[in-house]
Design brief:
The protein is of the alpha/beta class. 46% of the residues lie in helices and 15% in strands. The chain has a seven-stranded mixed sheet, sandwiched between helices. Strands 1-2 form a two-stranded antiparallel ribbon. Strands 7-13 form a two-stranded antiparallel sheet. The longest helix has 27 residues, at 53-79.
Amino acid sequence: MSKHGYFTCKGRTCFLADTKSLVALWLIFCLFRVTLFHDYSFLVLTHQNLVSAKSKELRNEFAANLTFKESLQKKVSKYSKDNLIVLTICNKGMAFEWLQQWYVSARRAGVHNILVVSTDREAYEWIFDKVGDRAIDASSWEMLTDSKRWNSELKHKAEKNAAAYNWRSLGYESIVVQRATLLKRVLQKTNVNILYSDADVHWMKDPASAILKKYSEYDLCLQREKGDELGDYNCSGVIFLSNSLVTLKFLRLWESYIKKRMLKKGFFTDQEEVNHLLLDFKSRKNIHEIGDLYSSNFTACTFDWDEFPSGINFFSHRRRGKGRIEKNCKSRICKSTIWVPLSQKRRRDMSSKAAFLVHHNYAKSNKIKIERAKEYGLWLDMEVSDWYER
């Protein structure tokens, strides 16, 4: 080899080029191929090699979102009825304890347009084994569970799952505050209306006709606790959501209220924040943030006490009496209504009530919830095979 960088091999001179020279020669060769043979494959290959890692990442993300959208739409198309899907959200802890009660009672009551959103992959695999393609894997969705608020205090995944059905636990808080985010995602990717319910709901009969006749004209309807007015501690455990741009605006605002509350200390739920939002809307407060909702003709309602009862309204009897205004009951009716435990006769007559469902909330612990459900004949004794009823 000479000092000029040339060497001879069997009569042919070979050139040792630097990287820039090789790239230039490669491009010239590609252009030569295109000119003579109209062959663009080399240029495509060269372009693919030069695509940035970020572009590939965005393309993969787009493909994943497209696959998710197609998969979700396929399930919705398969199971929706009268453009309505009945939906619940749970992690494995809640699913293991309550989902079979929710799912089987729904099927037996004639509610077949049901889907289950799982918040983590472990839950999805467990739920899919039980309900098949009615399960929706939300583990890859952008959620709020990555917040340091929970990860710094809930060190073990098992603790999150196990505590999710216990009121005021961190596991419970970390799951319920995802509700607005997950419901928003489903509405964005489909064109159906949603009747959402917590997994601790027992179904009595199909509510589809009542939703269509009485509630479908609204953008949003919430379950009542004691008060009957919007924003008076309405329960986010049962919600009707019309699939509209106005409803999506509301969900984004609800999500925004939750995010701001997450920055503060102390236990809270999404239910508190949805009521704060509704009260702001009614009193025209916080105009700078929710002003767009005013101009969108947003409409909302509360469900009938007896048709969609929460725990306080099913397991207690409302009657006239000297009531009182309190933190969780500020409606006018709270001044003249009291709630008393059901009598034995009322318990026997429960089957004649108008209820489409019973929400097992308003109990201090999961153990009390289950004991009360058994006492009232609302706990199904089932085997594994009951999952697969048709």
